[in-house]
Design brief:
Blueprint: H1 2-7, E1 11-13, E2 22-24, E3 30-35, E4 39-44, E5 52-54, E6 65-69, E7 78-82, E8 88-89, E9 98-100, E10 103-110, E11 114-116, E12 118-120, E13 129-131, E14 133-134, E15 137-138, E16 140-145, E17 148-151, E18 162-163, E19 169-171, E20 177-180, E21 191-204, E22 207-216, H2 228-234, H3 239-249, E23 260-261, E24 267-268, H4 270-288
Parallel strand pairs: 4-24, 19-22, 20-22
Antiparallel strand pairs: 1-5, 2-5, 3-4, 6-7, 7-8, 9-10, 10-17, 10-21, 11-16, 12-13, 14-15, 17-20, 18-19, 21-22, 21-23
């Protein structure tokens, strides 16, 4: 039954598919990758593949409920997601990624100005959000994170794939992370509609851990911020550098080395972020179709 539920989520569809919850697969090669003073700019050939992935076992975010089990900041605490009938669903697998027109669903794991290291439990049934642990103890960042942080559903960084553009680093076996730079502090489990603006290629202990910088559509600045240059123009100067430096340095107080970044240690533009999202969505599709071994990951 688990296999049937997983494989039902992804099917190949023709170009006439009309579902709003599809992700396009870029077919043509990249035209060029050029380095600028503060970012990497990638331009795509705008011709898109005729093939899309359509998700069947999905749920409308506006109908999703969040149910907490256990007390916050305890080992038993879990945040489950329920559909309109009250049945548990997976925030990673059952919430659609794409809403069309460059808009994506984003699931908040860690609200801005908080330090508890919350994450989707990818190895537990229905993949609830829980607080990460190390050696049986709850994990906290050494200081508050300054942005809302979470994941893109239906994405996966394949640990068997060595990315030639990022020092050959392999994926970290998790969904893609999002840093949402809007002004509001969000809630754990909140599902936001966001548009990507940039991408950072963090390398954490040799594993590639993408950070997609995005903004929620309901943020006051959303209408004027559409790409990497707009972040520098409409947000405090050095915002992208501050994000990179935060993730570079947060392990240092625990005696660990700083994280590294690929792509010249710079943020890449929106087109590159969309490329990352497309590729990791395709990896997720292969995962739930069991084209790639799942290991301990839950596909339910």
């Amino acid at each position: 039954m688990a296999t049937a539920m997983a494989t039902a989520r992804v099917v190949a569809a023709s170009a006439t598919a009309t579902s709003k919850t599809t992700s396009l697969i870029f077919k043509r090669p990249l035209l060029r990758l050029k380095q600028e003073s503060h970012s990497l700019t990638l331009n795509f050939n705008r011709t898109l593949c005729k093939r899309v992935f359509t998700c069947r076992a999905i749920h409308k975010p506006e109908e999703i409920q969040v149910k907490e089990e256990g007390k916050p900041e305890t080992l038993d605490h879990r945040v489950f997601f329920l559909d309109s009938s009250g049945q548990k669903i997976s925030p990673w697998h059952d919430i659609p990624l794409s809403l069309g027109n460059g808009v994506f669903n984003f699931i908040v794991e860690i609200p801005k100005e908080s330090s508890a290291k919350m994450e989707v439990a990818t190895d537990e049934l229905y993949t609830p959000i829980k607080q990460d642990t190390k050696k049986g103890k709850l994990r906290y960042y050494p200081y508050n994170i300054n942005w809302n942080y979470g994941l893109l559903p239906q994405t996966w960084e394949d640990p068997s794939f060595s990315n030639p553009e990022v020092e050959g680093a392999f994926g970290d076996n998790d969904p893609v992370d999002v840093v949402e730079i809007g002004e509001k502090q969000r809630k754990i489990g909140e599902v936001l509609k966001v548009k990507p603006l940039a991408a950072l290629a963090m390398i954490d202990e040799g594993e590639l851990d993408w950070k997609i910088v995005a903004i929620s559509l309901d943020d006051p600045k959303a209408s004027i911020v559409n790409d990497i240059d707009d972040v520098e123009k409409h947000f405090p100067q050095g915002t992208l550098t501050a994000i990179r430096d935060w993730f570079r340095d947060y392990k240092i107080p625990d005696g660990k080395p700083a994280n590294k970044f690929g792509l010249g240690n710079k943020a890449a533009n929106k087109d590159y972020a969309l490329k990352v999202i497309t590729e990791t969505n395709e990896s997720w599709a292969n995962l739930v179709k069991r084209s790639i071994p799942a290991g301990e990951l839950s596909l339910v």
